Amino acid sequence: MKTTAAAALLREQVCTNEECRRYAWSLPIATAVVGMETPEHIRQNARLARDAATMTEQEREALLARIRPQASLSLEWYKR
Questions:
Q1: Best exposed site among 25, 31, 44, 75 by fewest CB in 10 Å?
Q2: d(CA 63, CA 78)
Q3: pLDDT reported for residue 5
């Protein structure tokens, strides 16, 4: 699972890095691809993983409702 749609969700300011991570970590996934380009990103992701609370169903639905208008295959160019 690519947690930020290759950073497209962040670039478009649809949601935050933390929301993306919490959403992914609240699902029954085996692997999450989490980009870490700098030591600061590693520290931030480690903090998020350590402190993350599982999203409630209401939080997940609210996030999906906010993202849904932005969803398109252009976020996933490899599916064309």
A1: 31
A2: 24
A3: 78
Q: Please say whether the beta carbons of 59 and 72 come within 8 A.
A: no
Question: pTM to 2 decimals?
Answer: 0.72
DSSP 6-24: TTHHHHTTSS-HHHHHHHH
CA–CA dist 35, 24 (Å, integer): 13
Task: Give the dihedral of Cα atoms 18, 23, 24, 25; nearest 10 deg.
Answer: 80
The rounded average pLDDT for each run of 10 residues, N- to C-terminus, in the chain (80 residues) is 78 87 86 82 86 89 88 60
Taking the C-alpha atoms of 13, 17, 23 and 25 in order, what is their torsion angle to the nearest 10 degrees?
160
Buried residues in 35-64 as b, exposed as e (16+ CB within 10 A): eeeeeeeeeebeebeeeeeebeeeebeebe
